[in-house]
Amino acid sequence: MAWLYLVVAGLFETVWATTLKLSHGFQKLDYSLYTLIGMGFSFWLLAKAIKTLPLSLAYPIWTGIGALGTIIIGVILFGDRLSLVTWLFVGLLLISIVGIKITVH
After folding, report:
1. What residue ranges are annotated as transmembrane (predicted)?
2. Closest CA to 4 of 49, 41, 62
3. 104, pLDDT greater than 80
4. How far apart, in whole angstroms, are the C-alpha atoms of residue 26 and residue 73?
5. Average pLDDT over residues 55-67
6. Which among 23, 51, 55, 56 has a CA at the least distance from the CA of 39?
7. Which residues touch 17 (CB under 8 Å, ≥6 apart)?
8. Residue 58 phi/psi, 5° resolution?
9. pTM
């Protein structure tokens, strides 16, 4: 169950990062509230996950899921353009997250 908490926490990190951008520096109340709610869920689920998962494993996976999610959202919703080299490093980030997960004892 801890792994599920961790993955959903990472997805909520993507949610709050996206709504943070949409809040325009906390100028739009609705998106500002969504940001705070997303942060709350993300941190709460991370806290539940690290009750049983090692912090040294859970935290980088949590931030990695959030980073990958926000990259995808940035490209799809906001039209961010990434160079081929940047995509290479995005792929390495994904490989790193998977590598951390599969090498845990």
Report:
1. 33-50, 57-78, 84-104
2. 49
3. no
4. 19
5. 94
6. 23
7. 66, 69, 70, 73
8. -70, -45
9. 0.89
Distance CA 13, CA 73 (A): 12
The pLDDT of residue 105 is above 70: no
- Tell me the torsion sign for CA atoms 34, 50, 99, 63: positive
Task: Tell me whether residue 2 is exposed, middle or buried, using C-beta atoms within 10 angstroms of its C-beta: 0 to 12, 13 to 18, 19 or more.
Answer: middle
The sign of the dihedral angle between the CA atoms of 37, 5, 9, 50 is positive
Q: Which two tokens stand for residue 60?
A: 């980088």
Gap between the Cα atoms of 26 and 49, Å rounded: 29
Rounded Cα–Cα distance for residues 2 and 88 (Å): 30
The mean of the pLDDT values for the chain is 96
Share of the chain above pLDDT 90, in %: 93
Q: How many helices (H) and strands (E) does the chain have?
A: 4, 0
Which tokens go with 63? 């931030």
